Amino acid sequence: MSRKQVFTGSPWEPLVGYCRAIRVGHRIEVAGTTAMQDGVVVGAGDPYAQTRFILQTIEKALKELGADMSHVVRTRMFVTDISRWEEVGKAHGEFFGQIQPVATMVEVRALIDPLLMVEIEAEAIVETETEAEFEHEVDAEITE
To answer: One digit per residue, pLDDT tens: the chain, 144 residues?
Structure first.
């Protein structure tokens, strides 16, 4: 079974030894994603803005792996201030209102940077037809 990874250039990816997202067969896993861009927190103090940025990052990673947000079946949201859950939920609903994957939101004491307020993981499953197309694309990339 083929395996394809997506990297975003986060300084933590090589340090910790992980990728942003990985596709194996029809399953895609997206690592905990925060609102960091070029080492700077996007939307500091604004969980809504951070959530939107995170979900846009997840959306890009899924696209690189032959999927989109409609393939997402689960999200896990980690927030540093649960009293602001509605701001996170509002942004999540803007992306997933019609899709409605299962979702979990829990409060955590801290994230890797004190300005980060939200981290989100996602799981997606793609249809068999898409998997066959993906397998063909990966084979083509390997032979080039």
So the answer is: 889 999 988 888 899 999 999 999 999 999 999 999 988 999 999 999 999 999 999 999 999 999 999 999 999 999 999 999 999 999 999 999 999 999 999 999 999 999 999 999 999 999 865 445 555 555 545 444
Supply the angle between the helices 85-96 and 47-64 in degrees, to the nearest 10: 30
- Domains, the chain, in order of start with CATH, read 3-138 (3.30.1330.40)
Q: Measuring CA to CA, which residue among 11, 17, 21, 111 is closest to residue 60?
A: 21
Q: What is the dihedral of CA 24, 27, 67, 53, to 10 degrees?
A: -100
Nearest to 35 by CA among 20, 47, 21, 17: 47
Is 59 strand, coil or helix?
helix
Phi and psi (nearest 5°) for 97?
-55, -40
